[in-house]
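Forgive a beginner's question, but might I ask you for the amino acids of a protein and the tokens describing how it folds?
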Amino acid sequence: MNIESLVSKAKQVCDNRGARFTPIREKVFRLLASAQGGVGAYDLLEQLKVTETGAKPATIYRALDFLAELGFIHKIESTNAFMLCHHFDHIHPVQLLICDTCGFVKELHSTVISHELNSLAAEGGFVVSAQTIEAHGRCESCRAA
């Protein structure tokens, strides 16, 4: 899906939920939509400063909090980075394959893995409220190089 289609879909989600897709939020969304893999908050800030010279760390973090709250992005905890979710129009299980060499991130949606985790958790009396599984390794391109 191209960036304009993603932005249009995001605006529609915001309208449906009564949320404001401000120009800053849209710019951060577009930066993440054009990224390959995860991007750190300060890298996003530097990119945003190209058009928003007065942007501060709080500007980025507020935008990221908003985008995460609406399910538009995933936080990659192990690398403290963020990536756009291209499937934000529905709730889904998330597994991330992260290349330690080039930083590429592939998002998977295995209901089998999600179901197994929930079943194992339930056996121990635990209820999973959210899950993002991260797996590190090397992508096909880096393994071939």
Summary: The chain has six helices and five strands.
